[in-house]
Amino acid sequence: MFGFLDKLKKLPLLRNFARQERNPDEIVEEQWTAGFSKPNQNRFIVKDESSHRSYVRDRELVLGLKRTNCLAWALDGRFRYADQILEGSVRVHPKGGYAAAGITFRMIDERTNYTLLCSSKGYFRLDVLRNGMPEALAGWTEIPVPLSPDGAQKAKTQGAVNSPPGVSLPFKIIAYGPNILVALNHRWAARLKDRTIPSGRVALACASYEAAPVLPESPDNPAHAGEIAEAVLESFSVESRQARVEAAYSSWEHDYPPDPESR
Predict the structure, then answer these.
(1) Which pTM value belongs to this model?
(2) What value does the mean pLDDT take over residues 118-144?
Protein backbone atom coordinates (compact mmCIF):
# COMPACT_ATOMS: atom_id res chain seq x y z
CA MET A 1 0.00 0.00 0.00
CA PHE A 2 2.68 2.49 1.01
CA GLY A 3 4.73 1.56 -2.05
CA PHE A 4 1.75 2.34 -4.27
CA LEU A 5 1.31 5.77 -2.64
CA ASP A 6 4.99 6.53 -3.15
CA LYS A 7 4.60 5.80 -6.86
CA LEU A 8 1.60 8.13 -7.12
CA LYS A 9 3.61 10.95 -5.54
CA LYS A 10 6.26 10.59 -8.20
CA LEU A 11 3.91 10.64 -11.20
CA PRO A 12 3.42 14.46 -11.37
CA LEU A 13 7.18 14.93 -11.29
CA LEU A 14 7.58 12.53 -14.18
CA ARG A 15 4.87 14.29 -16.16
CA ASN A 16 6.45 17.68 -15.56
CA PHE A 17 9.82 16.32 -16.66
CA ALA A 18 8.30 14.93 -19.86
CA ARG A 19 6.80 18.37 -20.66
CA GLN A 20 10.10 20.18 -20.40
CA GLU A 21 11.25 21.62 -23.73
CA ARG A 22 14.67 20.63 -25.00
CA ASN A 23 17.32 23.31 -24.99
CA PRO A 24 17.11 25.17 -28.35
CA ASP A 25 20.90 25.53 -28.36
CA GLU A 26 21.34 21.77 -28.05
CA ILE A 27 22.85 19.88 -30.98
CA VAL A 28 20.39 17.05 -31.60
CA GLU A 29 20.31 13.85 -33.60
CA GLU A 30 16.83 13.30 -35.02
CA GLN A 31 14.74 12.75 -38.11
CA TRP A 32 12.19 15.50 -38.71
CA THR A 33 9.89 16.17 -41.63
CA ALA A 34 8.34 19.61 -41.82
CA GLY A 35 4.60 20.03 -42.16
CA PHE A 36 2.83 23.28 -42.96
CA SER A 37 -0.83 22.22 -42.75
CA LYS A 38 -1.06 22.87 -38.99
CA PRO A 39 0.68 25.53 -36.85
CA ASN A 40 2.19 22.96 -34.47
CA GLN A 41 3.84 21.16 -37.39
CA ASN A 42 5.83 24.21 -38.45
CA ARG A 43 9.10 24.99 -36.65
CA PHE A 44 10.00 27.88 -38.94
CA ILE A 45 9.49 31.35 -37.46
CA VAL A 46 6.85 33.38 -39.32
CA LYS A 47 7.01 37.15 -38.99
CA ASP A 48 6.58 40.44 -40.84
CA GLU A 49 9.62 42.72 -41.08
CA SER A 50 10.34 45.90 -43.03
CA SER A 51 12.43 44.01 -45.60
CA HIS A 52 10.65 40.64 -45.76
CA ARG A 53 7.71 38.57 -44.61
CA SER A 54 7.45 34.84 -43.88
CA TYR A 55 4.14 33.02 -43.66
CA VAL A 56 2.39 29.73 -44.44
CA ARG A 57 0.26 29.58 -47.59
CA ASP A 58 -1.42 26.56 -49.11
CA ARG A 59 0.60 24.13 -46.95
CA GLU A 60 3.90 25.70 -48.02
CA LEU A 61 6.32 28.07 -46.28
CA VAL A 62 6.68 31.38 -48.13
CA LEU A 63 9.38 34.01 -47.69
CA GLY A 64 8.55 37.21 -49.55
CA LEU A 65 11.02 40.07 -50.05
CA LYS A 66 10.01 43.72 -50.12
CA ARG A 67 13.24 45.25 -51.43
CA THR A 68 16.08 44.54 -53.85
CA ASN A 69 19.69 43.73 -52.94
CA CYS A 70 18.32 41.87 -49.97
CA LEU A 71 19.01 38.45 -48.47
CA ALA A 72 16.55 37.25 -45.82
CA TRP A 73 15.79 34.07 -43.90
CA ALA A 74 12.88 32.18 -42.35
CA LEU A 75 14.63 30.41 -39.47
CA ASP A 76 13.89 27.04 -37.91
CA GLY A 77 14.57 28.11 -34.34
CA ARG A 78 14.08 24.72 -32.72
CA PHE A 79 17.46 22.95 -32.74
CA ARG A 80 21.02 23.04 -34.03
CA TYR A 81 22.51 20.26 -36.15
CA ALA A 82 26.08 19.12 -36.80
CA ASP A 83 26.19 16.24 -39.33
CA GLN A 84 22.98 16.43 -41.33
CA ILE A 85 21.04 15.52 -44.46
CA LEU A 86 18.70 18.26 -45.70
CA GLU A 87 16.25 17.24 -48.39
CA GLY A 88 13.20 18.80 -49.97
CA SER A 89 11.85 20.96 -52.75
CA VAL A 90 12.09 24.73 -53.20
CA ARG A 91 11.00 27.19 -55.86
CA VAL A 92 11.68 30.84 -56.56
CA HIS A 93 9.26 33.44 -57.92
CA PRO A 94 11.24 36.44 -59.23
CA LYS A 95 7.99 38.24 -60.14
CA GLY A 96 9.50 39.72 -63.26
CA GLY A 97 12.90 40.49 -61.71
CA TYR A 98 15.90 38.39 -60.75
CA ALA A 99 15.95 36.41 -57.50
CA ALA A 100 17.15 33.21 -55.88
CA ALA A 101 15.84 30.79 -53.27
CA GLY A 102 17.55 28.12 -51.23
CA ILE A 103 18.62 26.76 -47.87
CA THR A 104 20.89 28.18 -45.18
CA PHE A 105 22.45 25.60 -42.85
CA ARG A 106 24.85 25.43 -39.92
CA MET A 107 23.60 28.93 -39.24
CA ILE A 108 25.06 30.54 -36.13
CA ASP A 109 23.47 33.89 -36.95
CA GLU A 110 22.97 36.19 -39.94
CA ARG A 111 26.73 36.82 -40.09
CA THR A 112 27.98 33.20 -39.90
CA ASN A 113 26.43 30.40 -41.99
CA TYR A 114 26.44 28.38 -45.20
CA THR A 115 23.87 29.24 -47.89
CA LEU A 116 22.90 27.35 -51.03
CA LEU A 117 20.99 29.54 -53.50
CA CYS A 118 19.32 28.57 -56.78
CA SER A 119 18.51 31.48 -59.08
CA SER A 120 15.58 32.19 -61.37
CA LYS A 121 18.07 32.15 -64.27
CA GLY A 122 19.00 28.51 -63.73
CA TYR A 123 22.22 28.75 -61.67
CA PHE A 124 23.25 27.80 -58.15
CA ARG A 125 25.96 28.94 -55.75
CA LEU A 126 27.20 27.93 -52.30
CA ASP A 127 28.69 30.52 -49.95
CA VAL A 128 30.14 30.54 -46.46
CA LEU A 129 29.67 33.70 -44.40
CA ARG A 130 32.29 34.21 -41.70
CA ASN A 131 31.51 37.05 -39.30
CA GLY A 132 29.84 38.95 -42.10
CA MET A 133 32.58 38.28 -44.66
CA PRO A 134 31.25 36.19 -47.60
CA GLU A 135 33.33 33.66 -49.53
CA ALA A 136 32.07 31.73 -52.54
CA LEU A 137 32.78 28.01 -52.13
CA ALA A 138 31.09 27.49 -55.50
CA GLY A 139 30.31 30.53 -57.66
CA TRP A 140 27.31 30.72 -59.97
CA THR A 141 27.16 27.36 -61.76
CA GLU A 142 24.52 25.98 -64.09
CA ILE A 143 22.10 23.66 -62.34
CA PRO A 144 22.55 20.13 -63.75
CA VAL A 145 19.87 18.88 -66.12
CA PRO A 146 19.68 15.27 -67.37
CA LEU A 147 20.92 15.01 -70.96
CA SER A 148 18.77 12.17 -72.31
CA PRO A 149 15.24 12.88 -73.63
CA ASP A 150 13.72 10.60 -70.98
CA GLY A 151 15.80 12.22 -68.27
CA ALA A 152 14.95 15.69 -69.52
CA GLN A 153 11.24 14.92 -69.33
CA LYS A 154 11.68 13.56 -65.79
CA ALA A 155 13.59 16.66 -64.75
CA LYS A 156 10.88 18.87 -66.23
CA THR A 157 8.21 17.24 -64.07
CA GLN A 158 10.46 17.39 -60.99
CA GLY A 159 11.78 20.92 -61.36
CA ALA A 160 14.24 21.30 -64.23
CA VAL A 161 15.91 24.67 -64.60
CA ASN A 162 14.61 25.06 -68.17
CA SER A 163 11.04 24.96 -66.87
CA PRO A 164 9.18 28.24 -66.19
CA PRO A 165 10.07 30.12 -62.98
CA GLY A 166 8.20 28.79 -60.00
CA VAL A 167 8.55 25.11 -60.89
CA SER A 168 9.84 22.95 -58.06
CA LEU A 169 13.56 22.25 -57.70
CA PRO A 170 14.44 19.15 -55.64
CA PHE A 171 17.58 19.47 -53.53
CA LYS A 172 19.67 17.32 -51.21
CA ILE A 173 22.50 18.56 -48.99
CA ILE A 174 24.78 16.39 -46.88
CA ALA A 175 27.03 18.14 -44.36
CA TYR A 176 29.31 15.52 -42.82
CA GLY A 177 32.19 16.95 -40.84
CA PRO A 178 33.96 19.38 -43.23
CA ASN A 179 32.38 17.72 -46.28
CA ILE A 180 29.46 19.38 -48.08
CA LEU A 181 27.70 17.48 -50.86
CA VAL A 182 24.92 18.93 -53.01
CA ALA A 183 22.50 17.29 -55.44
CA LEU A 184 20.00 19.30 -57.53
CA ASN A 185 17.39 17.96 -59.94
CA HIS A 186 18.38 14.51 -58.59
CA ARG A 187 21.85 15.01 -60.09
CA TRP A 188 25.33 15.51 -58.61
CA ALA A 189 25.96 19.26 -58.34
CA ALA A 190 28.88 19.92 -55.97
CA ARG A 191 31.33 18.36 -53.54
CA LEU A 192 33.29 20.71 -51.26
CA LYS A 193 35.28 20.86 -48.04
CA ASP A 194 35.16 23.67 -45.50
CA ARG A 195 35.83 23.55 -41.76
CA THR A 196 34.49 26.99 -40.87
CA ILE A 197 31.20 26.13 -39.14
CA PRO A 198 30.71 22.77 -37.36
CA SER A 199 27.02 23.15 -36.43
CA GLY A 200 24.05 25.48 -36.48
CA ARG A 201 20.41 25.94 -37.45
CA VAL A 202 18.62 25.70 -40.80
CA ALA A 203 16.54 28.32 -42.62
CA LEU A 204 14.73 29.04 -45.87
CA ALA A 205 16.66 31.75 -47.75
CA CYS A 206 15.62 34.23 -50.43
CA ALA A 207 17.71 36.83 -52.26
CA SER A 208 16.55 39.58 -54.61
CA TYR A 209 19.02 41.10 -57.06
CA GLU A 210 16.72 42.99 -59.42
CA ALA A 211 13.06 43.99 -59.29
CA ALA A 212 10.55 44.15 -62.12
CA PRO A 213 9.97 47.65 -63.57
CA VAL A 214 6.53 47.68 -61.93
CA LEU A 215 6.03 46.19 -58.46
CA PRO A 216 3.54 43.29 -58.36
CA GLU A 217 0.09 44.07 -57.08
CA SER A 218 -2.11 41.80 -55.01
CA PRO A 219 -5.61 43.31 -54.81
CA ASP A 220 -7.05 40.17 -53.21
CA ASN A 221 -4.40 40.18 -50.49
CA PRO A 222 -3.12 43.71 -49.76
CA ALA A 223 -0.70 42.45 -47.12
CA HIS A 224 1.40 40.88 -49.89
CA ALA A 225 1.36 43.89 -52.23
CA GLY A 226 4.81 45.20 -53.00
CA GLU A 227 6.66 41.90 -52.51
CA ILE A 228 9.18 41.76 -55.33
CA ALA A 229 10.28 38.12 -55.00
CA GLU A 230 9.52 35.06 -52.97
CA ALA A 231 10.99 31.70 -52.02
CA VAL A 232 8.62 28.82 -51.40
CA LEU A 233 9.54 25.72 -49.40
CA GLU A 234 7.25 22.95 -50.63
CA SER A 235 8.76 20.13 -48.59
CA PHE A 236 11.65 19.75 -46.17
CA SER A 237 13.24 17.12 -43.95
CA VAL A 238 16.25 16.87 -41.66
CA GLU A 239 18.16 13.69 -40.84
CA SER A 240 20.84 14.36 -38.23
CA ARG A 241 21.37 10.90 -36.74
CA GLN A 242 25.10 10.44 -37.13
CA ALA A 243 24.97 6.84 -38.35
CA ARG A 244 22.39 7.70 -41.04
CA VAL A 245 24.38 10.71 -42.23
CA GLU A 246 27.59 8.68 -42.38
CA ALA A 247 25.85 5.96 -44.42
CA ALA A 248 24.44 8.52 -46.87
CA TYR A 249 27.85 10.14 -47.23
CA SER A 250 29.47 6.77 -47.94
CA SER A 251 26.94 5.95 -50.67
CA TRP A 252 26.97 9.42 -52.24
CA GLU A 253 29.12 8.54 -55.27
CA HIS A 254 26.90 5.54 -55.96
CA ASP A 255 23.63 7.46 -55.57
CA TYR A 256 24.85 10.63 -57.34
CA PRO A 257 27.79 9.71 -59.58
CA PRO A 258 29.68 12.78 -60.78
CA ASP A 259 30.34 13.28 -64.47
CA PRO A 260 32.52 15.72 -66.44
CA GLU A 261 29.44 17.74 -67.43
CA SER A 262 28.53 18.28 -63.78
CA ARG A 263 32.09 19.14 -62.73
Answers:
(1) 0.82
(2) 94
